[in-house]
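DATA SHEET
Item: assembly model
Revision: 1
Owner: S.N.
Input lines:
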Amino acid sequence: MSEKKHRLHFPRIFDPSGKRMVEISVLVDNVPGMIAKVATAIAERGVNILWGVHHEADEPDFGWWCFFIDATGVDVEPLIESIKRIEGVRYVHFSETTFGDLALDVHHSEQVFGEDRVIELRQRWLAGALKNIYEKWGDDGRFLMYQLGYYGGYESYREWRERSKLSGRELAELDLKIIEVLGWVSRAELVEFDPEEGRVVIRTWGSFEAGMRLGSGFLCHFIRGELTGFFSAMFGKGLYGTEVMCEGRGDPYCEFVIAPKPFEFGKELGKE
Ligand SMILES: [Zn+2]
């Protein structure tokens, strides 16, 4: 399978490059050919469609196609009227979206995954906050990031298992694919998977934590937490995650070893 990937420019806030951008959202019957019909009506007026998203609608049997056009010098109202006349188009709305030197998607409210809201943070913003947290709180701050990852990984296990209907190695590989899709790492590989021993080794390239350059050393506390939580849930016991190689210290990749705890404080993990 080809591993060729290209970068996705965040499609909701962007530089309009001096153009007048208009956002158009079209609710259409969920049948083949609707995008082609709408695109043809727009092309007939010589208007360029820039980027957009085609997605499921809350109403069953309909779909949304939401996109930006270069509306510089375009009479938009007649264009919208021509789209409305297309058979299978249920609803159309449009908005001016250029605010100074930025264009914003103003047609979508929250992004959801099932019933869960998905939020987005820029890496640089997080890096600024973490720099302060690590400076002020040291290992306590790093432990906080680890815990954040651990909780998410632990909870995600059930979710991905139920939704994907996969288990074992296939489910482990799915989790790695998902952290790639979420942009936490560029690539992840399952190097060792031993459910009997409760031991897993994972390599990642392009971890966002290593990429934040918050010092040198082992930097990937959140990713280590996510993997440890995920496999603790999978194997049904509290595991211990160590990062043994890290891009943050000049290694060619980050490597995580998730294994049974070398020792335990009593029965439960006490307050640290
Ligand atoms: Zn790392």
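QC remark: Residues 139-164 form the longest helix (26 residues).
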